[in-house]
Specification:
Helices cover 66% and strands 0% of the residues. It is mainly α. The chain has two domains: 20-91, DnaJ domain (Helix Hairpins), CATH 1.10.287; 101-166. Helix 3 crosses helix 4 (81-91), helix 4 (81-91) runs antiparallel to helix 7 (144-166) and helix 6 (121-140) runs antiparallel to helix 7 (144-166). The longest helix is centred in the last third of the chain and has 23 residues, at 144-166. The chain is elongated and about 60 Å long.
Length: 167
């Protein structure tokens, strides 16, 4: 079973041989409680962070630093809903969606509207919220194809929303 975040476009890439859920001692699920995630993250950091180890050799501190970095990476990946979805799909052996004509056409339309000065923010935010719900329902039902499609669409919606914030 392949593990890790899939899709080179995702900004939170994770080592494909490390399961961030396992790293933080969490059940593998999409609807992860953010408070629980944070609790597990801080507990893992207390065990490995080099600044908290006291009198250790430089080699031990280097290993602790590496472990701490992996724990940070796991936390950042799972904290982001798209990163978490990518990990879950990869763990299920599902390849990322690489092309969807309908999504690409819709993204081009939004970008054209944005270029014409049309405010599409509300539509994008509503679409994003609906896609998060779709993603949650798909994972709950273990419908990985629907989850894969929702993740693909969300990637585009988030990119366009980010572009709007930068404008």
């Amino acid at each position: 079973m392949k593990k890790g975040v899939v899709g080179a476009e995702h900004r939170f890439m994770f080592d494909p041989f490390i399961d961030p859920f396992d790293m933080l001692g969490l059940e593998r699920r999409y609807d992860l409680d953010p408070t629980l995630l944070e609790t597990h993250y801080f507990a893992a950091q207390r065990k490995t962070h080099p600044d908290l180890l006291g009198a250790c050799s430089e080699a031990q501190k280097a290993v602790a630093h590496q472990k701490s970095s992996v724990i940070n990476q796991a936390y950042v990946t799972l904290k982001d809903p798209l990163g978490r979805a990518g990990v879950l799909l990869a763990a299920a052996g599902i390849a990322p969606l690489t092309h969807d004509a309908e999504t690409l056409e819709r993204a081009m339309t939004w970008n054209e509207q944005r270029a014409m000065g049309i405010d599409i923010t509300e539509e994008l935010v509503q679409t994003e919220q609906q896609l998060y719900k779709d993603l949650d329902r798909a994972f709950t039902a273990k419908d990985y194809e629907k989850a894969r499609i929702a993740l693909y669409k969300l990637t585009y919606v988030r990119k366009i929303l980010q572009t709007l914030k930068e404008d």
